[in-house]
Model the fold of this input.
Amino acid sequence: MPQSLARVLIHTVFSTKGREPAFHDPAFRSEAHAYPGGCAKTLDCLPVHVGGVADHVHLLTTLSRTLSIAECVKEIKRVSSNWIQKRGGIFGQFHWQAGYGCFSVSESNLEAVSRYILRQEEHHRKITFQDEYRELLRRHGQAWDERYVWD
Done:
């Protein structure tokens, strides 16, 4: 076969460092959540949906066939963090948390995950980021150690 093709969907979640509510302003939140989607696109990881709340972001993207998950997330976080820091003021010391979660998404579950991401504000009226993240880990069969999940 002369051509290499891939369609792998990934749901990536990461928080602001210390889960600081850096994106409490809805207008800036929209920008701050859209920017990682643009970063993903430049890496050939096409954004499907991006959303979140004041202290974290969810990205539903394809995964480029030429990058590892780690390379993709590292670059998205690096570039978007630099963009946020350049705003200055309270954002001058902005950082994303060191870690992240990435979860595979089947085509048959694409719409459900998209709705989940689009309804983040509603969802977080009932559940904290930490509990949401633990549930994602449980649902995807991922073991974790609480001592190393939060920063």
About this structure: The first strand starts at residue 9 and ends at 15. The CA atoms of residues 86 and 92 lie 6 Å apart.
